[in-house]
Amino acid sequence: MYHMTVYSENGEVLIDQAVEAATDAAAKQEAHRLLQEKGYETKPHRVFHRTGRLVMFKPHQFDTKTSKATI
Question: Cross-referenced Pfam families, in alphabetical order (predicted)?
């Protein structure tokens, strides 16, 4: 069992759901499919195994001058 969380630029949770997959590779593939389906490929996101192992991660991008998200 895996879990995916997707955030907006201001930290709002856009997706917070379980991802059914047997392997890390299958979880990544399913997560990419869900991201594309919702148009969230560029949004900050993470996918992790139920044991806490991080499988996929895209962090927020910040402008170092303004300290604001740039996505």
Answer: YhzD (PF14120)
Question: Domain locations in the chain?
Answer: 2-69
Q: Which residues pair with 10 in a beta bridge?
A: none
Whole-prediction pTM value? 0.83
The CA distances from residue 61 to 7, 27, 28, 29, 56, in Å, are 12, 24, 21, 23, 16
- The token duo for 22 is 């047997």
Q: Please tell me the predicted confidence (pLDDT) of residue 55.
A: 97
Give the E-state strand segments of 1-71 in sequence order: 2-7, 13-19, 45-49, 54-58, 62-63, 68-69
**Which tokens go with 27?**
């979880």
Question: In whole angstroms, how far apart are CA 52 and each of 13, 44, 67?
Answer: 19, 18, 29
